[in-house]
Specification:
By secondary structure, the protein is an alpha+beta fold. The longest helix has 28 residues, at 269-296. The radius of gyration is 38 Å and the shape is elongated. Mean pLDDT is 81; it is low at 1-6, 325-331 and 341-357.
Length: 614
């Protein structure tokens, strides 16, 4: 390096490349690798070993400016630091530590996004299904959505699911170029220096993205690259005459490697012009050779660095938030052992660690202090007394005030690890009627789909009180009576209307709510509904969200608008922020299902028969 360069190193950094000399000798070989080689006027003896490549390979190294000699007697291979500018990830991830400038915390045990991202990229491909049985703040689902993976996440806490839902819906994601798309095919051709693919694209995410890549340049990447000879010969047609002209002007006999980088101050202008043109062509030749080496070398794909289209903004794809399946399931205990369903429906299973106090007793203790919460705060059923009842299905007798009148309620306790069925409700309601009860309160962690259609048997009103999953904690749960451990969320009050074109539409008027003070059932109105969904062709096996609508006083998409930094189309939003559905064809099954979720996260589903419109 010249003294002037050392004094102004900052101005030279962009033109500098870090390299080291690597061994060109091998202990094995013979034949084509057994020769002496002359480079830049110096004859290098092969010595006791052999060269790592043949004569043609050595010439290509020389043409690529990849030969150097740290001493006059040793010829070496020039290896640049960016011949392989990345390094494989080891099992020590020091770059994933949590600090003040990492992810914003929305959950107490929130996992670092980078940790999940790395695991997901290592273990899956775009389009794969990722299962996270412990949702928490939804980091896994958030990362899977970003990287084009399908996902299912599970949690027992409604708080976790609400946080995850808001986080995913309010996020803005990068739009990665799909390999199976016209723009992706164009980018792939640009990066790989090939002709764009003419095959029909289907935008199949399983084909992956267009990824950044780095060359992995090794010795044979150069020695076996015949394109170097073509580039060299093409440029020599211009370089040789320029060198001859420069030598003639200066009365020199310089070989290519002897031409100085800087022109002499006392050179004539014609020599300076010839010198400048020679170096311009010489640098251009080196750039083409380097590009050829990088392209022909093995490519290492950087799967964490797909190319993005910054002109597009992507938001989360459609997803649903589902509760525990509303269908009949086998009753299991916490050790995954089958338990007797009759015993389970009577609430007589004794969970481990609860001693003599069985599951039913624990539920009654919490029910006694918490009461049953209706949709409105003032409509809580507070028991004046709650005592055990020796029935087959009814486990307790509860008394509460309906205005100035005392009413008696029979209490059915559903299974600890199962689902309350319609048959359970029918049997319990009959028993309540025979015993002179006024109302049946059925407490269960979940109810099957058909039980949702059943709300009254004769004079016996049936209230389905969903038990909070926190009750599973039993011993750890502090019984203060302040939490909504038992919630009655009434049936959807809807109207099915025929519309033009042999279609129907659904208008939701609210949720039917039982008022214990008066004994009346009224509709709460749509303001008590956070969102509602329709399965327009319910098959009685699974609820599939085909229509989704969002109600309530607050704007549910405010955070999304902020994220997108743009206004959402008012007309498009009006079709979602509505208590009336878009028209849809009559169901082939003759049934639709409507699921309603209130602002507390409680939900109810009801199946409606619509065959009369067929």
């Amino acid at each position: 390096m010249y003294r002037g360069e050392k004094q102004d190193i900052a101005s030279q950094e962009s033109d500098l490349k870090v390299y080291r000399h690597d061994n060109l000798k091998s202990q094995s070989g013979g034949g084509t690798t057994d020769f002496d080689y002359e480079h830049e006027g110096i004859l290098f003896k092969k010595g006791k070993g052999f060269w790592k490549t043949n004569l043609q390979g050595m010439d290509r190294l020389a043409k690529s400016w990849r030969l150097g000699y740290p001493t006059p007697n040793s010829l070496a291979y020039v290896r640049f630091i960016d011949d392989f500018p990345v390094s494989p990830i080891s099992d020590l991830w020091t770059d994933t530590q949590t600090g003040a400038f990492t992810d914003e915390k929305v959950y107490v045990v929130q996992t670092n996004t980078k940790v999940i991202e790395r695991c997901l990229l290592m273990a899956s491909d775009p389009g794969d299904l990722v299962l996270d049985p412990t949702c928490g703040s939804g980091t896994t689902a958030f990362v899977a959505e970003q990287w084009g993976r399908r996902w299912i996440t599970i949690d027992t806490s409604r708080v976790s699911l609400a946080l995850a839902r808001a986080r995913i819906m309010g996020a803005r994601y990068q739009y990665y170029l799909l390999a199976d798309s016209p723009e992706g095919q164009q980018k792939e051709a640009e990066v790989s220096r090939t002709t764009p693919s003419m095959s029909l694209s289907r935008r199949d995410i399983r084909q992956g993205f267009v990824y950044e890549r780095v060359p992995h340049i090794m010795l044979n990447s150069i020695t076996r690259n015949s394109e170097i000879d073509v580039i060299w010969n093409r440029f020599q047609e211009a370089l040789d005459p320029l060198r001859d002209n420069l030598n003639a002007e200066l009365r020199e006999n310089w070989e290519e490697w002897e031409i100085p980088r800087e022109a002499g101050k006392d050179w004539p202008e014609s020599a300076k012009t010839a010198h400048a043109k020679w170096w311009e062509a010489r640098i251009e030749r080196q750039k083409e050779i380097d590009a050829s080496i990088a392209t022909k070398a093995d490519q290492e794909f950087l799967y964490d660095k797909p190319y993005s289209d910054n002109s597009r903004v992507r938001v989360a794809g459609p997803f649903t938030v589902e509760s525990l399946s509303p269908h009949r399931t086998l009753a299991m205990d916490q050790d995954d052992s089958l338990i007797d369903t009759t015993t389970a429906s009577e609430g007589k299973h004794v969970p481990e660690g609860m001693g003599e106090a069985d599951f039913a007793a624990m539920i009654l203790e919490n029910l006694r202090t918490s009461g049953v919460q209706q949709a409105h705060k003032e409509d809580r059923i507070s028991f004046t007394s709650l005592n055990g009842w020796p029935g087959e299905f009814i486990a307790a007798e509860g008394r509460f005030m309906e205005g100035d009148t005392e009413r008696k309620a029979g209490v059915l306790i559903g299974p600890e690890f199962g689902t309350v069925s319609r048959a359970d409700l029918v049997a319990a309601a009959r028993e309540a009627g025979d015993a002179g009860f006024d109302v049946l309160i059925a407490c269960g962690f979940n109810f099957d789909a058909h039980s949702e259609e059943f709300s009254k048997l004769g004079r016996i009103q049936i209230l389905k009180a969903r038990m909070n999953p926190d009750l599973h904690m039993a011993d750890e749960l502090k019984n203060t009576g302040s939490g909504n451990l038992f919630v009655v969320f009434g049936e959807p009050d809807i109207e099915i209307e025929p519309v033009e074109g042999d279609k129907i539409q659904v208008r939701i008027k609210g949720v039917d709510v039982f008022h214990p003070q008066s004994g009346e059932i009224t509709s709460s109105g749509p303001d008590g509904i956070a969102c509602w969904f329709i399965d327009t062709d319910y098959n009685e096996e699974s609820f599939f969200v085909r229509h989704a609508y969002f109600l309530g006083a607050a704007d549910p998409y405010k955070s999304l608008k902020t994220t997108l930094k743009a206004e959402i189309d008012a007309d498009a939003w009006a079709t979602l922020n509505s208590d009336t559905s878009r028209p849809f064809p009559k169901p082939s099954s003759g049934r639709i299902a409507v699921k309603v979720i209130n602002h507390l996260g409680d939900e109810v589903m009801k199946v409606f028969e619509v065959s009369k419109w067929n």
